[in-house]
Amino acid sequence: MKNRQQFTTVANLKTTVRILIRAGLLLLFAFFILCQSASAQSKYIKKYRPMADSLSNIYGVPTSIILGVALLESASGTSRNCKLLHNHFGIVGKNNLFKTKKIRTRYKQYPDSQASYVDFCKLMTRKRFYPTLKDNSDYTLWVDAISKSGYSEVPQYWKTKVLETIKKNKLSEFD
Q1: Quick check: 77 and 105 in contact, CB under 8 A?
Q2: Cα(168)–Cα(114) distance, rounded to whole angstroms?
Q3: Is residue 23 one of the residues assigned to a domain?
Q4: What is the CATH number of the domain that holds 170?
Q5: CA-based nearest residue to 136, from 65, 80, 68, 75
Q6: Which range marks the domain in which residue 132 is found?
Q7: How many Cβ atoms from other residues are within 10 Å of residue 99's Cβ?
Q8: Rg over CA atoms, the chain
Q9: pLDDT tens across 128-166, in order?
Q10: Using a CB cutoff of 8 Å and minimum separation of 24, what contacts does 146-151 make?
């Protein structure tokens, strides 16, 4: 009986150790992914902030809005649309990706990232809310107005994600 109890205890201990090792590896992997994501976001912000600041001064759209929407829509510059179309904002329009790569997509193609950023700012100037929000640095008002304007197909989810992105990356400090 004593040997059987020892065997059961050893077997339980081995199982527990395996579970702990797997859980530890899973946590380590999750931490790596989060760090990588944060790193990608900070690199993206560092690269595109000067352009966003400049466009903010020209068009009166807060830098936090420009960068927050771009971070979300382009997955910090890693999305297929961003890489192939230079589309950082998920703007729908014409492209010639099917002719060149046999890929069908409904998203607009730009010659470079700057053209995508400028187009987003110009799009904002054509929205009904623009005259009342121009030069207003309250990003929550901007996100709310953009989400209500039909910019996203899932406005409430989009609004939540953009606000999270702005807060997480402290983008309002740039306004």
Answers
A1: no
A2: 24
A3: no
A4: 1.10.530.10
A5: 65
A6: 40-174
A7: 8
A8: 23
A9: 999 999 999 999 999 999 999 999 999 999 999 999 999
A10: 146/65, 146/69
